[in-house]
Amino acid sequence: MWFKSVRIYLPMVYILALFQTGCNQNDRFVTVSAESVPKSVSIYVSGITPVTELVFDKEGLRIKTSTRAVALAGSGVFISPNNHVLTCHHLFTFPVITGITVCRSDGRCTAGEVLYAQENLDLALVETNFDLPTPYIRLADPRGLKVGQDVIAIGNPLGFEFTVTHGIISALGRDNLGVYNMTQSDTSINPGNSGGRTEERRVG
Q1: Helix or strand run (H / E) with residue 27
Q2: Looking at 46, 90, 105, 186, which residue is catalytic?
Q3: pTM for this structure?
Q4: 106 is catalytic
Q5: 47-81 pLDDT, tens digit each
Q6: 57 carries an active-site annotation
Q7: Which of 50, 101, 171, 197 could make an SS bond with 191 (beta carbons 3.0 to 4.6 A apart)?
């Protein structure tokens, strides 16, 4: 498999489905994936960030300041009939954001704008300009989560859009990453499931 399993603390935006017993496991994964992928998006953020470097050249040892253009790939889910997308706050922490592009599973893309962000929960709400209503995820009451329940993640790991992976809830109420009351899962994910597949180039 091109990605390896990692155990991380999974933001709520990744938990797209909980499964109940009483049906074939493989069938329910197929069904939930088919229902959830059209409700998911890939997000591409570009920005500019300052960089300070210690360099040694003909002028001697000195500190050099420049800027870099940075590109991030992430993912999110539609959570309202108004095409609002729930994603991660850390996608939008560049000092200067130059563009946000949101792409649906049918290939349509549009510009996005951050309406709200909450750093301590690592969540952000993005407004999109799609001209057609999109199916959306109905968020469940998190008090119903139980350790051992099945979950799936749909994301953009390493640039592979709308990848589906499966795991279980490993623990609840984790607080020791500086983020409050998070859910831990062993679902296989990589940078890009939230945001983190970064490319940089010097521009100044």
Answers
A1: helix 25-36
A2: 90
A3: 0.77
A4: no
A5: 998 888 888 877 778 888 888 888 889 999 999 98
A6: no
A7: 197
